[in-house]
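Weekly puzzle thread! Below is a chain. First person to post its structure in token form gets bragging rights.
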Amino acid sequence: MAATKSILVLHGYSQNAAIFSKRIGALRKQCGKNVDFVFLDGPIVLQPVDLFDVDGGPLSGTGASEAGATDDPALKPRGWYKANHDKTKAIGLEDSLVLLRETLKRERLIQGACMAAFLAALLERPEVYPPFLVDGKPPHPPFQFCVSVAGFKIVDPLSEVVFQTSYDTPTLHVIGKTDIIVTPERSQSLLDVSTHKRVEEHDGGHFVPSKTSWRKFLAAYLKDPLGDVPSPSPLSAPPSGTVTPTTHM
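Winning reply:
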């Protein structure tokens, strides 16, 4: 019997662990008992005003409407940080790093969008942010791989320190061709610093693709992230060496 692989799962803005677990229920079923998904709630509970972008439009595509429809505290919309008005600072990022540090001390995880990649980069060079260390040592070894769905590079001074010019953790970047929340330009900001990347595009928007071909692909990738897993989408070029060329229309 194959050993169980634990995977840290970080939800998107205005979702939470319960909502994201439900959303990828079909993928969890596809992976079977050999993959243990560890869902974590972001520490920041969002208020109604936080569920609108700076232009006043609702963030309905991120999960805000699903979370905001209940008074159940367990289903409140959450985040890992909140951007300031000018989008130059990630407010609350340090609090999230404390939570992640403590989680990584307890869980021997193999892997964890923007926060996942940030954490992967930080584990490569934890000394650049001393509060993340535990008795002078990193709380967890570097991740073996990372999956970033609709990811982008966090805009914050600490992000520049952590990513520097690049990070090396093998990362699968899943991008929605019609994603209007994380635009191609925002996606590219993370791709530009991802040295060992594989890029897969789907024809949908801001969500984890759930078609059968994608479920099978993601399940196979999670079980063997460094293996030769065929692409699930004709939109994506096959991996070429360690870096997959990417184009955005």
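Puzzle host: Confirmed. Bonus trivia for everyone else. Residues 39 and 193 are 26 Å apart (CA to CA).
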